[in-house]
Amino acid sequence: MNIAIKNVTQLLVASVLSLGLVACNKNSTSPDKTTDTEKTVSTIEQIKKNGVIRIGVFSDKPPFGYLDAQGKNQGFDVEIAKHVAKDLLGDENKVQFVLTEAANRVEYLKADKVDIIFANFTVTPERQEVVDFSKPYLKVSLGVVSPKAKPITDVAQLKDQTLLVNKGTTADSFFTKSHPEIKLQKYEQNTETFDALKDGRGAALAHDNLLVLAWAKENPNYTVGITSLGQHDLIAPAVKKGDKELLDWLNQDLEKLAKEGVIQQAYEKTLKPVYGDTINPKDLLVE
């Protein structure tokens, strides 16, 4: 009898444990369901919930994105980004500017460090495979700046010489593919690259023509001997690949801002003081 009672007791204990495990398993599915629900929250909903939009901008690329003497974000890209924040959240101050460099713009989007990139981002087929670009707002090509004492006016002059570029830029890509005979010295930040030119570490520096034209005006011992190189490209903001809702909203907002004259106003405030009458705004802004 004792053996029989022992067996019955063991069966009862096993049954209770089995029921407990089933109950635990049922309860354990609840957090997963919550997670699934959270995953369906759109970027726009999350931005509104957070009460701030994170926008990646440059810190060292005047007049497009830079920090002024007070450490505040300034520039053409920054002006437009503020209006985007205002239209989405009702207040241009509800933007968190995340400082980025050319080489990590894509990674910042992929890693959800930013919601939108507004960092003088040139549209290329390679980049279109990994991010989604919105409506463009600027036209650009490459330019080459060099010392006035030894001006570079033709790419052929750069053969067997060192050309300074920024990692991950269109200049980097263009010269790597089209001119392997030119030695490239690459830097992460714009300030590093331009300092290298001043120090004589390269015969010239290649970057967006709008940037080198602006820099040469501030540094009269240098000249942009090649003002337009390669194809004319477009500059546009970008969002994470596949974020259609945010992309559609951004496209509509940029179209609205253009019609309201906001992009023209941003040009007048940030770019015209630099370029003056040397550049026709119609040759720069995308209608």
From TrEMBL:
Keywords: Signal, Transport
Domain Solute-binding protein family 3/N-terminal as annotated: residue spans: 52-274
GO CC terms, sorted: extracellular region; outer membrane-bounded periplasmic space
Recorded superkingdom: Bacteria
GO terms of biological process kind: amino acid transport
Pfam family, one: SBP_bac_3
Extent of the signal sequence: 1-23
Similarity comment: family membership: Belongs to the bacterial solute-binding protein 3 family.
The name this protein goes by in its record: Transporter substrate-binding domain-containing protein
Organismal lineage: Bacteria, Pseudomonadati, Pseudomonadota, Gammaproteobacteria, Moraxellales
